[in-house]
Amino acid sequence: MEDSVDEAIIREVAKDARATLSHISEAVGLSVSAVQARLRRLETRGVIAGYRAILDPEAMGKSLSAFIEITPLDPAQPDNAPELLEHLDAIEACHSIAGDAAYMLFVRVAAPRDLEALVRDIRLAASVNTRTTVVLQTYYENRPLLPDA
């Protein structure tokens, strides 16, 4: 970060990616053109990597979410599960993890039978064992990443 003004701009954009330049300029005490220049610089440096819509999973018909740990059937097999599973759109995130499992997947589907089919597809595509934990309720997610205070 360049300074506290950049941090303030990042906070405003993280809270609302659709905030107008004039709103941000009021919040941080700079002119609209200065905010625009700083935003461009933050984007060019990769601090702001992009903007995206946050969709409501239930409204999209994907009310069931789960974490799926995957472990290779054969520890000697190539470690390419992320590439082998990338085509499965229900997988929202794939994390390499420490522990017994190799990866943790976060998935969203419409119903239990869809989760069952997805687990089968994951096992077949990547030759892995799975351990699934169904999410009962989510209290928060997609929290904005903010600079340290």
Provide a compact summary of the structure.
By secondary structure, this protein is of the alpha+beta class. The protein is 36% helix and 19% strand.
Write up this protein:
With 149 residues, the chain is of the alpha+beta class. 15% of the residues are buried. A hairpin with a 6-residue loop joins strand 2 and strand 3 (103-109). It is 36% helix and 19% strand. The mean pLDDT is 94. The protein folds into two domains: 4-44, Arc Repressor Mutant, subunit A; 64-134, Lrp/AsnC effector binding domain/regulation of amino acid metabolism (RAM) domain (Alpha-Beta Plaits, 2-Layer Sandwich).
Q: Give me the CATH architecture of the largest domain, please.
A: 2-Layer Sandwich
Poorly predicted spans? none
* Lateral strand order in the biggest sheet: 2-3-1-4
Tally the helices: 5
**Average pLDDT taken over every residue:** 94
- Helix-strand topology string: HHHEHEEHE
Strand content: 15-25%
CATH topology of the largest domain: Alpha-Beta Plaits
SS class: alpha+beta
| CATH class term of the largest domain | Alpha Beta
Q: How much helix is in the residues?
A: 25-40%
> Taking Cα atoms only, what radius of gyration do you get, to the nearest Å?
20 Å
Instruction: Kindly give the count of domains.
Output: 2
The CATH H-level homologous superfamily of the largest domain: Lrp/AsnC effector binding domain/regulation of amino acid metabolism (RAM) domain
Any idea what the shape is? elongated
